[in-house]
Design a protein that fits this description.
By secondary structure, this protein is mainly alpha-helical. It is built from eleven helices and four strands, in the order αββααααββαααααα. Helix 1 packs parallel to helix 7 and helix 8 packs across helix 11. The protein starts with a helix and ends in a 21-residue tail after the last helix.
Length: about 280
């Protein structure tokens, strides 16, 4: 753990010196955030892949980027399905509306209700491997873990340590009470099956149920979280007359409930989640 954390801070320091924030023709989104006693304005403006430094740190960052996008292939010994990190964290965690990871290295270690404990970033990565990837944890001193830490630190380089960027978490809330599974089945066939498969097996999009999907301990297995994600991000292109991001709350609720009504792998430690109770949503 100590060696892994040392790598993280080494990469952070080097990246901060070698890299400057990338420029764009359009203005990045900004939000004022209180960090300690001073107020800073945070921009969602992650560095671009071609800005990775051409040195040993850069090699680790690039491997981390590749692992984000092709996890099942490059970390096959630790992945139990066909998903990649980018299946949920689009653009290797650099798309603002799709579970972004920019700033995550500034947030952890962090207390989490699910574990009722302070969790390190390495532990959080391994939770994704065990739950979303339905696999097993990476060794803390492995090249893969070091690469993930290097990459996540690099894309977080402009976020002050200790701040919690406003784009983390889900700002959209969907009322998921009383879902209609029959309506969900219709919406899935209309707007989802072309990419995710008629039987949820995946295609151009990831599997959403069955043996190659996330297990029931993953965050996406929570109806509220999936419905919010679907409402904001799905479908990717217009499908069956539904434009990207245009699903109603009811449609997002129903199709998410339909997806989660199907079998998926079981996470053996799920019964131990939220030992102090789940917080009110």
């Amino acid at each position: 753990m100590r060696r892994s954390r040392t790598v993280m801070f080494s990469v952070l320091s080097t990246a901060a010196i070698l890299l400057s924030a990338c420029s764009s023709g359009s203005a990045p989104s900004q939000s004022p955030v209180n960090s300690n006693s001073s107020q800073v304005s945070l921009s969602f403006h992650p560095p671009k892949i071609d800005e990775i430094p051409n040195d040993e740190n850069g090699k680790a960052i690039k491997l981390g980027y590749d692992l984000m996008n092709d996890t099942a292939k490059l970390a096959s010994a630790y992945v139990g399905n066909q998903l990649s990190c980018s299946s949920c964290h689009a653009g290797a965690g650099t798309v603002q509306t799709e579970a972004p990871l920019v700033g995550v290295a500034a947030v952890y270690p962090q207390y989490r209700d699910r574990e009722a404990a302070v969790v390190t970033l390495e532990e959080r990565i391994n939770q994704c491997f065990e739950r979303s990837m339905n696999g097993k944890p990476l060794p803390y001193n492995s090249p893969e873990m070091r690469a993930f830490m290097a990459y996540l630190t690099w894309i977080s380089k402009d976020i002050p340590i200790g701040t919690n960027p406003p784009w983390r978490g889900q700002s959209v809330k969907v009322d998921v009470s009383n879902p209609n599974l029959e309506e969900g089945r219709k919406i899935y066939a209309q707007a989802c099956a072309a990419c995710h498969g008629a039987n949820g097996e995946g295609g151009s999009g990831p599997a959403v149920w069955g043996p190659n999907s996330f297990n029931d301990g993953a965050g996406m297995a929570n109806l509220s979280k999936m419905a919010a994600f679907v409402k904001v991000n799905m479908p990717k292109v217009e499908m069956g007359g539904i434009k990207p991001g245009a699903m109603t709350d009811q449609q997002a609720r129903d199709v998410s409930a339909w997806i989660l009504s199907h079998d998926r792998p079981k996470f053996p430690g799920k019964a131990n989640d939220y030992p102090k109770g789940r917080p009110a949503s």
